[in-house]
User: What shape does this take?
Amino acid sequence: MNQLDSILFQVGKPARYTGGEWNSVIKDWDKTAIHFALSYPDLYDIGMSNMAVPILYEILNNLPDVLAERVYTPWKDMEAALRKAELPLYALESKRPLNDFDIVGFSMGYELCYTNVLSMLDLARIPLLSAERNESHPLVIAGGSSTLNPEPMADFFDLLVLGDGEEVIVDLIDAFRAWKKRGGRKFDFLKAAVKIDGIYVPSFYRPEYNTDGTLKSLTPLIPEAPEKVKRRMVNRLPPPPLKPIVPFVEIVQDRAAVEIQRGCSRGCRFCQASSIYRPIRERPQEEVIQAVGQILENCGYDEVSLISLSTSDYPGIDKLVTALAKKYPNVTFSLPSLRIAASSIQLMESLPSNRKSGLTFAPEAGSERLRLIINKVIPESVLLDTAAIAFERGWTTIKLYFMIGLPGETLEDVQYIVKLIEKVCNIGRELKGNRARIGVSLSTFVPKPHTPFQWAAQDKEDVILAKHEIIKSGLNRRGLKVSWQDPHTSLLEAVISRGDRRIGQVIHQAWKTGSSFDAWSEHFKWENWQAAFKECAVDPTFYAQRERHENEILPWSHIDLGLTPAFLKREYQKALKGEDTGDCRTEGCNVCGYQTTFPTCVERLEQSAKP
Assistant: This one.
């Protein structure tokens, strides 16, 4: 028995750390020139449900000279066991230490996972700061939605991949291959990589700050580094992974998944995903149907999720569901992110093997006035009619998502949340009696980069708690469950998401005092972060609870998403006036920035201009 086998007996769910799952790829280490570790900074159960890692895993392993393996953040018991046994963090397929790989690439989707990155690097015996790594260490890179403000983690990564990864990862490997062949320093590779659209090398830029603490400039230090770094975007969705790995243990999303479209055209002003995944790219129906069949054959799942930010908006979704139900009658299909509408209920009813256990809708705000401000234009009558139809047709549970602290929110708006929930409860009680169950989830608004609300301030803690109290005191009845987010968690998320490089020092300090798994309530230690802010002389309210001036240079201003600043400013002004913006797929082009560059947008704009 080797040392690793001996410690696996000491931890919970050892199958998280064994590898060898169905469809995992084992390549000959000595016969592949480039070794890439795909790293997800959260528990295996979470990371195996992520869609980015399997996409990159398949793309990289399809390259003959590239070996790609996986690693996830070990849970607390496994971390302690590794440290006690003095074993380094390893990749699942070969059990090789991470510091043996050429590239360690992190998939970054949530700011509260950032301390886990530091834990993984430390466990792998790789220096945390890029400036402290030498030629013998792996290249440490990152991509994912949260890296579109790369500055808080800039000091830890050699480079970051911004935007869709399917094409840029191949370009990056080509550049790495050429560099390895000709030899040279890591600096030479970074100089070549920074010329690739979608690649950002933080060490090639120097930030300067004004006396009031705001960002003065972010200056390129070499001629090759562009002033604006363009987000990478695929015009057409590449084929989805058809042989995803089947885990040995139950994971959060334990089913097959096919992305049917990327992007959303509805433009909710608080929603970062709506901005960073624009414009809409749809997967053809026949390709979806074929992909479902191949994944079922390769994995043996009996449940498939059709993934999209707004599944109801997929063109011909009803025809797609009908075709899938006919072709695969023994498979359960799930449709996340449905619009609040009677048509969504009809769509769910058309699914085979539908269990009618529960429906989830996100009104986000209680009043129609506030829903206009955030551009989620849903009349209350539509929500109530949809709830009534759901209960009438057999559903017994409805979950409602609301957001507290949205720009322009008043205490009256919060009271409207209570009134709206009461109306849904009354409908459920009338139609289902005591069987009706209503779940309410309250999150706190976090102003995110690259959204119209990127300039807005987050509510202070006392205001958020007062709003929570209005809802809790107003909703005290059977059959109703209310959950809410810790205000400190939301504050930290806002600080990091809108942070600059000075926040990196805070992240480092909090990690050194024991912070990790901050996204898990049982491990979140606000006192660590308070001490870290004090130690680094950083005021968290400066980043989270301060309204930004529209002409202020933001820490992410050098990242060109494709959306123009003029569009975001126009949307922010419309929000302040309580004006909505229509869906560009049905109500004309909103001139967001893609109308001259993206083929579908160009074509749609040209058609709208015809007499």
